[in-house]
Amino acid sequence: MTTDFRKTEPVISLGVFLALVFDVNGFESRHGTRYRVHKLQHDVMYLGRDQVPNDEICALDLFNVYQAYQQLSDFSALEIKRLVPELPAAAQGLLLHLGMIE
């Protein structure tokens, strides 16, 4: 299954990607799930879902998100899951929020 998402920044360094992520406080998945960033530590983003009371804080490995962006041409959550198995919908939502895919 392919998506209509395409890269807007085909070439981006890990440093630039992490700099973009640094200012993110929250974002939505393409299906409307709202994620709130609790903290960033090195290349890990800790986030929770706003709609779920007492939601467990989950770790999103930003290096894996970056690798997915570099390697994939299909940005469906199913394809992203191969490289970001822990939170593929959040990874997709983050890339959408940053404007790296549209």
Beta-strand percentage? Answer: 15-25%
Shape: globular
**What is the string of SSEs from the N terminus onward?**
HEEEEHHH
Determine the number of helices (DSSP H or I, runs of at least 4 residues): 4
Radius of gyration from the CA trace? 13 Å
Whole-number tally of structural domains: 1
- What is the helix fraction of residues, given as a range? 25-40%
Separation of termini?
Answer: 17 Å
Instruction: Please give the number of β-strands.
Output: 4
Average pLDDT figure: 92
Profile the largest sheet.
4 strands, antiparallel
Are there runs of 5+ residues with pLDDT below 50, and where?
Answer: none
What key phrases describe this protein's structure?
four-stranded antiparallel β-sheet, alpha+beta, single chain, 4 helices
Task: Walk me through the topology.
Blueprint: H1 14-22, E1 26-28, E2 34-41, E3 44-49, E4 58-61, H2 62-71, H3 77-81, H4 88-97
Antiparallel strand pairs: 1-2, 2-3, 3-4
Offer a concise description of the structure.
With 102 residues, this protein is α+β, with helices and mostly antiparallel strands. The protein has helices at residues 14-22, 62-71, 77-81, 88-97, and strands at 26-28, 34-41, 44-49, 58-61. The protein has one domain (14-97).
